[in-house]
Each structure stands twice: as C-alpha cells, then as structure tokens.
Amino acid sequence: MAEVVHRNLELMLPELEELERSGIFSPQEIKEIVRRRRGMEYKLQRRPVRREDFLRAITYELNLDRLRKVRKKRLGVTSARRDADYGIQDRVHSLFKRAVKRFKADVRLWLQYIDFCRKSRHHVTLGKILARAIALHPNKPGLWVMAGKFQFEDQNDPSSGRSTMQQGLRSNPSSTHLWLEYFRMELMHVDKMKKRRLMLGLEKSEDEELEKLGAEFFSYEIPSIVFQQAVKAVPNNVQFLVSFIDIYRLFERSEQRQEEVYSCLRRDYSHLADCWEALARRHWTNIDTTTLTGTEVSSIEEVVEGCYREGLGVTVQPSSLWRHYLKWCREVTENEGTDSTQLRVGPIYFV
C-alpha cells in the first residue's frame, strides 16, 4: 500500500513544483497539500474503500482548484505550465475514474462525474463517460437523455442524437421523460433548420417533389410521428399528451400540430376529467385579459364555460371536472376583481 501511495504522490511533483515556482502556493502550503493528499491516498488504498472517501478527496481537489484560479488571477500569473493549470483537474478525473470503476452501480456517482466533465468542458471525456454509463445502466432514461442532448447540442450531431434517443426508447419504451425529450429534440432540429434556411436566404426548390418533402419537414411532420408513436407506447395518460402541447407551444407555427393532440384527446379520452380540463384551458392559456376588450374576454369565457359543460355531460369523473371548473371560475373572478366568495356557475351560486 505504501509503495502505491508513494508512486501516486511522485506523479504530482511536477504540478506542485510549478505551483510553488509561480508563487500561487507557498512552500508551507505545498507541504500541507502533500500531507492532505497522502492521508486521502491511504484511505483510498485500504479495503474496503468507501464511496465517501472518494467524494471527500474530489471535493478537496475542486476547492483547491478554485483557490488556485483565484490566486492566479489576483497575482496576474500568465506563464504557468500545463502541470499547474490542469494538474488538479487531471487528478479529479483520475479520482472519478477510480470511483466509478469501484462503484459501477452507483448512478449518482456517474451523474456527478458527468456534471464535472460538462462544467470543465471536457467533451471528449464526457462522450466516453456517457457511453460507459448507459452501457452499465440502460434502464436509466435520464442517462439516455443526457447522451442524446450532448450529441445534438454540444456535438451538433442530430443524427447521432436521434439514434441515441431511439436506442434509449427501445430499452425504455414506457419512459415519458425520454419520449418528451426526444420529441423536443426533433422540434429543435426543425426550428434550427428553419432559422438556417432563413439566414442563408434559400429560395424554394424548383424540384416539386423535393419542395413537398421540405414543406412536410418544416411543418413538424417528424415530431408528429414521434408523438403518434409515443401515444401508442404510453397509453391512457392524459397528462402525458398535454405535455406535448406545452412543448409545441414553445415553437412558432405549430398550431396545426397542437390541434392533432387536442383531437387525440377528444377522440380517446373524452371520458376523463383531465381531458376536458385541457380542452377548456386551451382557450384561456396565455390570454392577457388586459389587452382585450370586455366583449372579447366575455366571448372567451363563454367558450371555456361551454367546454366544461360539454365535458360534464360525458365524463365518468364529474366531481373531478367540477373541481377544475370551479378553480377556473375563481381565477376569472380574481382577475376581474369581483367578489370571489360568490361564483356563478350557470344558474347555481356557490357562496
């Protein structure tokens, strides 16, 4: 054990010598760093090693690196060698590698390593760590989402991002989180292509067939297909469907696709209260009553009320829908500044 600890400490010498030479740490501070690292190395070499020992060592190194950066900036040191600038980060990587090798089943440890790689912008290492993590934990949708986003956003590789998401869905077909993030990614891809086309000033193609394919693509045809597959994979989940609408609203000119989701709700889930809550709220969401006339607001309120009343005639959950209805009524009275202790619901007064 002592030989291994001594060898690991010797590997740190170039870094420590450079930190002392540049004046970032004093000789006494270097001795203290060596003493602390020696103690932590002995704990990491013992059997059985504990997860907390790795995390304690990592936390110490991260705090030490923050102090190094502050002092380097304050002293105006610009000539430090790589050993001084990246030695501590290299040691953190080494500690994380040893930790995840020892505790492969600890997903939280993998997530901490992934977070460190992202913050330190070590993209090459991040890609490798994500691949290892999902290979060991294919049933964790969050890891697939991280890997897909990394390839799509950081690597600017939509094809690989799509492939990763699809592979994750094959392993986790009922994951609502994975379906929604894949759906969002496809929408972002279309939006990005739209902006690129606008920026380049590309005109319509003379090839009619090619132009038709382009029109389908830019009208969110692929996200629509993802939605249809998601509904089949995760049936009987109204809130899941509503989440697709919320994501659609983040993108311009998606109203037609939103209508597809509402049609699906009405067709397949009209017996549920949450369905009618979503259908009614669609007319009220994002409405700024301060910019509308009283007549316009009243007209919208009538549409919403009519939707709730239609739902009450067909739902098998009338009590739940009444609660949604009354909650909306309170919001209306509060917005209008009227007495919320008396709510008009058709001919009935709730006092």
Automatic annotation (TrEMBL):
<dbReference type="GO" id="GO:0034388">
    <property type="term" value="C:Pwp2p-containing subcomplex of 90S preribosome"/>
</dbReference>
<dbReference type="InterPro" id="IPR003107">
    <property type="entry name" value="HAT"/>
</dbReference>
<comment type="similarity">
    <text>Belongs to the UTP6 family.</text>
</comment>
<protein>
    <submittedName>
        <fullName>U3 small nucleolar RNA-associated protein 6 homolog</fullName>
    </submittedName>
</protein>
<keyword id="KW-0698">rRNA processing</keyword>
<dbReference type="InterPro" id="IPR013949">
    <property type="entry name" value="Utp6"/>
</dbReference>
<dbReference type="InterPro" id="IPR055347">
    <property type="entry name" value="UTP6_N"/>
</dbReference>
<dbReference type="Pfam" id="PF08640">
    <property type="entry name" value="U3_assoc_6"/>
</dbReference>
<dbReference type="GO" id="GO:0030515">
    <property type="term" value="F:snoRNA binding"/>
</dbReference>
<dbReference type="InterPro" id="IPR011990">
    <property type="entry name" value="TPR-like_helical_dom_sf"/>
</dbReference>
<keyword id="KW-0677">Repeat</keyword>
<keyword id="KW-0539">Nucleus</keyword>
<dbReference type="GO" id="GO:0032040">
    <property type="term" value="C:small-subunit processome"/>
</dbReference>
<feature type="domain" description="U3 small nucleolar RNA-associated protein 6 N-terminal">
    <location>
        <begin position="9"/>
        <end position="91"/>
    </location>
</feature>
<dbReference type="GO" id="GO:0000462">
    <property type="term" value="P:maturation of SSU-rRNA from tricistronic rRNA transcript (SSU-rRNA, 5.8S rRNA, LSU-rRNA)"/>
</dbReference>
